Amino acid sequence: MKRVYPMIVQKCGRICALVLCLCLLLCGLCHCKEESEDISTEATEYLKQGLSAFWVADCLSFARASAVIRERESGKAITGYLLYSESVHHNKGHLADRQTETYQAITIDPATVLPTEMTSLSTSYLTEGRIYYQFHGKDEKKYSLPFEEDYSSAMGLYSLSEASPVSRYGVKDGESVRVDLRFSPETCQKSQEIFIYNMQAALFGQTLPSEWSTLLLSMQMEGKERRITSYSLSFTGNCELGGESYTVSYRYEEFFTGYDAAPPIEFPDLTAFPVLKKE
Fold it and tell me: Please, which pLDDT band fits residue 246 given cuts at 50, 70 and 90?
């Protein structure tokens, strides 16, 4: 028995340790569950608070707007288009200063393309309600126009500021907040009109009648400051061209960093940017 007793003690010790670990794990899970708070009924309000915080923030952002054409029957990717931009934001309410570098690429897998693999498209500046473009490459040109007449006035954060969701989900875990909002196909078509036009012009050379899915906005926020750290918009459209049926997957995502630490914007001579059209 002298030899058996230590083995029994050892086994009991292992079992007790295992039970203790399981208890600690369950306690941890219960604790995490208690920390998570369902804020679905407040999800739309969190979006508004995130937008309000953005309007007065200095920050940096990185955005990717993409669309990929797939054969509807097989799901095979045919081609796609990606716009990537890096921006410095100096926001002052709805008035803002912004500098943006934009790049483009033709790709069937936008998520894997690096900025260094893309072609520089333009540099733009926003200040005092006007936006100024300098396009690069062989078609280099400059022009300016009112911000509300520019495509960027209805992209990303700007596109859903007045829309009402058909469903909402939100969860707060400590200082992290996630909000998912779904919008009707009608709202999707209307709010994403400029995004859709840009992508279809690049992919098809024309705008095609399409059947739209619901639009999903998925957003991550800092719970304390109500600052948006990242978000994505995603939806699909079914269309036909040349007797073939296609599904186009659209995605717009943006990531924010450098809050209150954005570098200064050095504006060029803005008088050198001709007005695009008579106003």
Answer: very high
Q: Is the pLDDT of residue 25 over 60?
A: no
Q: Which of 112-126, 151-165, 170-184, 262-276 has the lowest mean pLDDT?
A: 151-165
**Cα dihedral angle (270, 273, 276, 277), rounded to 10 degrees?**
80
What tens digit of pLDDT does each residue of 89-103 get? Answer: 999 876 799 999 999
Return the bridge partners of 241, or none.
244
Q: What is the pTM of this model?
A: 0.83
**∠ CA 253-258-262, rounded to 5°:** 110
d(CA 231, CA 77): 25
Q: Which two tokens stand for residue 28?
A: 């941890």
* Cβ count within 10 A of residue 114: 9
